[in-house]
Every structure is written in structure tokens, then in C-alpha cells.
Specification:
CATH superfamily of the largest domain: MFS general substrate transporter like domains
Number of strands: 0
Structural class: mainly alpha
Radius of gyration: 25 Å
CATH architecture of the largest domain: Up-down Bundle
Distance between the termini: 31 Å
Shape: globular
CATH class of the largest domain: Mainly Alpha
CATH topology of the largest domain: Growth Hormone, Chain: A
Strand content: under 5%
């Protein structure tokens, strides 16, 4: 039988345990559709449950603590298990683990819709978080295996848009479902989306994995799960207990110590869970920082702006979702144009441009007051969306171009975990800024009220509305208006701080990020040790595979 000659790329990918790029024609775009659906369902679930918490309180008789954990259980599991999940996907197969994760997410969502107790729903939310910890990094890690370097920026923009589109769509979908159906529908809606994603992934996504993966770093996995969980738990408890509470301090300190131990261990162990030396590449480091800045500021702004639309301006959940649609339009517009612009302007300019555009949008939004009409909001939101798309999708493309393909799952999980931590800190820190401004502005209107009543009014604008409803009409109306004004002022402070963070990030990127480095974009030219040795023994004759920059002689 005549031997079939293999191309150098095919030989190199086989040596690294990777499937060849066999998805041709329209199949790869259908595969991308499955990835978009997988990401969309996670984005929807993030905000749809928050919108439905008041309904869940009534239907399940959930206490305030239980309501918090219905949301927190998902966040803890998602953040804590993401890095080990990405590593498992690299070892066992990315498509295989994506199918498992989608099935788990769909099954736990269906079970969640049938729960009759709050504790049962909390358990199902934790399972959904574990499934999400797999879907998050895998959805990105698969892209380099099916798209060429030329097509990857557009694929990342489309795939990344799925997640971000789900965030503002959550209140719209939740409002419509809760208006027409039972509360369980907010979880059942995941079923059809997951089913389509499962079919698309099974048919169109090729398998890829690192068949030469070293022994699993169990110690590193335990350290990162415990460390991230400790940090996120402290952040979750902070709004209720305060930064000075012993539980919050202990959780944050323990999490930080465990993550420091994880870093030291990973740099010393022979087979690390994830290669932290990736951060020696400045383009990788600055791109990860951009993602963290966007997570910190954007999620924090959504956290404070959504209640403003609902409580201060009196919109229901569905109307709030409609008013967030311009943000979706901006993200789509930015996604469509980002790949062309990055080819013309370069990645550093695109990152700086995205951050600055976002800062402009947040500055515009900071001029919104309690009685401001919708026109200014409709102008500011798409500006924020465009800037977000430019910065986030460009940074993701840089990260994926630098990650070795055998480690795209672990590397993507690492960057996603850092973004999740930044977003959690953003919600906590920006929420504290909002709370301090709100209390300071409202304090003069609470003089003479009993301490317990004053504490409720100072706790939230919803609490102030509750107190105002039990007061005589003129007094209650004055208190309600004062609370709305105080919240709007606090939101203004949050938006301006976020804009300053964006501008600061843009200055740092523009000043210190190199235009290009030797490592960037040269992944396929730098075989790993196992691949080098494999090619020495099995490489085709005459194939000059050894990169000149690595030295004069190949390894034995």
C-alpha cells in the first residue's frame, strides 16, 4: 500500500495529540453555532436568576440567606472548578467534556425547575455551576482547533458575543417567562438551547485533546479550587457582613494564601496543572489584564445599573431587558467590525481604543439622573457595547494565539477564572462605593426616624421604598424621591470610577504593551519537548522542523 505523505502541520499536530483541522466548508461555522449556544445559555443564566429572586422568595418561601445562596452556589462552583475543568478537557477530550457538561447543565436545569424547596434549588444551582465551569473554557479552547489563524478573530468575536448577549437578555427573558408561565420556566428554557448545542457539538465539533498529557497535578488542583472558592466566598459575604467582618477577612486571607501556595507549587512542580510561565509573555499578560478590567468594570456597572432601571425608574423586569437592548446592539456592531479593524490598526491600538470607548460610554451614562429620560441611556449603552467588543474580543484572540494548542483548555480556564475573580471584586468594590454614596446622601432625610427603620432605608433603595410606603403621603413621597436621587448619585460615582479604571488601563496598555513579541503568534513554530522528540524519531525526511531561535541542535 502506498504511504500517504503528511504535511509538517499534520505531523506536528499529531505529535501534540491534537486532531487535524478537519472541519471544512460550512461545518466549522455550524460548530461555532453550537459554541455560541453553549455560551449564550451561561450568560442568560447569570442574570435571569437574579431577576427572578423576588418570585423565588414567594414561591419557595426562601429566606434572605437562601436567596443569596441560590445565586452564590452557582458562582462559587463556576469560579472554583474552572481551572481543573479546563485541564480535564485537555486530557480527556474537549468535545467529549463539552457534551458531558452540556448534558449536566441541561439535566440540572430541568431538575431545578421541579424543586419544591430552596435548599434543593441551591444544590441544583451548584451542579449547574460545575457544568458551567467546563463550558466556559472549552467553548474558547475549541476555536483554534477548527479555525485558521486568519479566521480566528471573527470566530472569537462571534463566539464571545454569545456570552455577552446573554447578560442583558436575562432580564428580558425572565420578565416575559415570569409574566406568562410558572417560575420553573426560567430553568426549563435552558433545555431546548442545551439540546441544540448538544446536537451541534456532537455532529460538527471535532475531538481534540493532549494525548501526551503528564500526570494530573492533584495538589495544584486542590489548592486552586480551595483558594478561588475562599476568595469568592469572602466577596459574596461582604455586602451583608462588611469588609471588617472576621468571616470575610478570614475567607479572603485564606483564599489569598492558598492561591499564593498554588503559584509557588505550580512554578516548582515537574508537571504543573497550568503553565504560569505564560505570564512571562507581556502580550499575554496585558491581554489578560484587559479582560480583568472589563470584568471588574462592566459587570459592576450592570450590577448597579439594572436596579436603577427597575427600582428608581419603575420598570418591570421585561421592560428593563428591553431598555438594555442597545447594549446588545453595540456588542454585535463591535463584534462585526473588530476583526477588520484589528487587521488595520493592530492589537495594541484596538485594546486601547476599546477601553477608551467604554470609558466614554460610562461617562455619558454618569450624567443620567433619577428623572432622566431614556434618550441619553439609549446613546450611552451602545457606546459601551462597542468598546467592550473591541477590547474583549481582541484580548481573547491574543490569548488564544499564544496558548499552546495542547493547553488551550487549561489556559482559557486560567484567564476566565481571573476574569471571574475581577468581576466578583468589581461587584463588591463598586457596590461598596454605591452604598457609601447612597447612605451619605440619604442620611439627612432620615433624621428623627427610629434606628431600625433608618437601617432598612439605608440598606437599599428598595428598603427605602418599603419604609416610604408606610408613611403619610407627603413625607413618604419625599423620602422615596430622596432615595432615588441618592441612588442615582451613587451610580454616578460608580460609573466615573469605572471610567477612570478604563482610562488607566488604556494608558498602561498603550505605554507598556509591546507591539509584538517573538512568542506571539509563533505557537506552531515552537514544538514542545515531547513533540520535538517525536519528530526526531518519526518526522519525515528533509522536514526542517527545528526553529532557529531555539538553538543550533535539536534535543535528543
Amino acid at each position: 500500500m502506498e504511504a500517504v505523505e503528511q504535511s509538517p502541520e499534520t505531523v506536528a499536530r499529531a505529535a501534540d495529540g491534537l486532531a487535524p483541522r478537519a472541519v471544512t466548508g460550512g461545518g466549522r461555522w455550524l460548530a461555532l453555532g453550537a459554541i455560541v449556544l453553549s455560551s449564550l445559555v451561561l450568560g442568560l443564566d447569570t442574570t435571569i436568576v437574579v431577576t427572578a429572586l423576588p418570585t423565588l422568595s414567594i414561591k419557595l418561601g426562601a429566606t434572605t440567606d437562601q436567596l443569596q445562596w441560590i445565586s452564590a452556589a452557582y458562582t462559587l462552583a463556576l469560579a472554583g472548578f474552572m481551572i481543573p475543568a479546563g485541564v480535564l478537557a485537555d486530557r480527556l477530550g474537549r468535545r467529549r467534556m463539552l457534551l458531558v457538561a452540556l448534558f449536566l447543565f441541561g439535566a440540572s436545569s430541568t431538575a431545578a425547575s421541579q424543586m419544591t424547596t430552596a435548599n434543593g434549588l441551591i444544590f441544583m444551582r451548584a451542579l449547574m455551576g460545575i457544568a458551567g465551569a467546563l463550558i466556559f473554557p472549552i467553548s474558547l479552547a475549541i476555536l483554534p482547533t477548527i479555525f485558521s489563524e486568519r479566521e480566528r478573530p471573527r470566530a472569537i468575536a462571534i463566539g464571545g458575543a454569545g456570552m455577552f448577549l446573554g447578560l442583558p437578555l436575562g432580564p428580558l427573558v425572565a420578565g416575559w417567562l415570569l409574566t406568562h408561565y410558572d417560575w420553573g420556566s426560567i430553568f426549563l428554557i435552558n433545555g431546548p438551547v442545551v439540546l441544540l448545542a448538544l446536537l451541534g457539538a456532537r455532529i460538527f465539533i471535532p475531538e481534540s485533546r493532549d494525548s501526551h498529557a503528564p500526570r494530573l497535578d492533584v495538589v495544584g488542583a486542590a489548592l486552586v479550587v480551595a483558594g478561588v472558592t475562599g476568595l469568592v466566598y469572602g466577596i459574596i459575604e461582604q455586602p451583608a457582613l462588611g469588609w471588617s467582618n472576621s468571616t470575610v477577612i478570614a475567607s479572603l486571607v485564606a483564599g489569598a494564601i492558598l492561591l499564593a501556595g498554588f503559584t509557588v507549587w505550580e512554578l516548582r512542580v515537574r508537571s504543573p496543572l497550568v503553565d504560569l510561565r505564560l505570564f512571562l509573555n507581556p502580550r499575554f499578560t496585558w491581554s489578560v489584564l484587559v479582560g480583568m478590567i472589563m470584568g471588574f468594570a462592566l459587570l459592576g456597572v450592570l450590577f448597579v445599573f439594572t436596579p436603577f432601571l427597575q427600582i428608581v425608574q419603575g420598570n418591570d423586569a421585561q421592560a428593563t431587558g428591553v431598555r438594555l437592548l442597545p447594549l446588545i446592539g453595540g456588542i454585535v456592531l463591535g463584534a462585526v467590525g473588530s476583526d477588520r479593524l484589528v487587521a488595520r490598526l493592530g492589537v495594541r491600538v484596538m485594546l486601547v481604543l476599546g477601553l477608551l470607548i467604554c470609558a466614554v460610554g460610562m461617562t455619558l451614562l454618569s450624567f443620567v439622573r433619577a428623572d432622566t429620560g431614556y434618550s441619553l441611556i439609549a446613546v450611552a449603552l451602545p457606546v459601551i457595547g462597542v468598546g467592550n467588543a473591541f477590547a474583549m474580543f481582541t484580548s481573547l484572540n491574543i490569548i488564544l494565539s499564544i496558548l499552546p494548542e495542547a493547553q488551550t483548555g487549561a489556559g482559557s480556564a486560567l484567564t476566565r477564572t481571573l476574569q471571574q475573580l475581577a468581576a466578583s471584586f468589581g461587584v463588591a468594590i463598586l457596590g461598596s462605593i454605591l452604598s457609601n454614596s447612597y447612605r451619605a446622601k440619604l442620611a439627612e432625610h432620615l433624621i428623627g426616624l427610629p434606628d431600625r427603620v433608618r437601617d432598612v432605608a439605608e440598606g437599599s433603595v428598595a428598603g427605602a421604598a418599603l419604609i416610604a410606603s408606610h408613611m403619610p403621603a407627603p413625607v413618604g413621597m419625599n423620602l422615596l424621591n430622596a432615595a432615588h436621587v441618592a441612588y442615582a448619585i451613587g451610580m454616578t460615582d460608580v460609573l466615573r470610577v469605572s471610567a477612570v479604571v478604563m482610562v488607566g488601563g488604556a494608558v498602561l496598555i498603550g505605554t507598556f504593551m509591546p507591539v509584538r513579541t517573538k512568542e506571539a503568534g509563533s505557537r506552531s513554530k515552537r514544538p514542545n519537548v515531547r513533540m520535538r522528540r517525536w519528530l526526531v524519531r518519526n518526522g519525515p525526511a528533509g522536514f526542517n522542523w527545528w526553529p532557529r531561535s531555539a538553538g543550533s541542535e535539536p534535543p535528543s
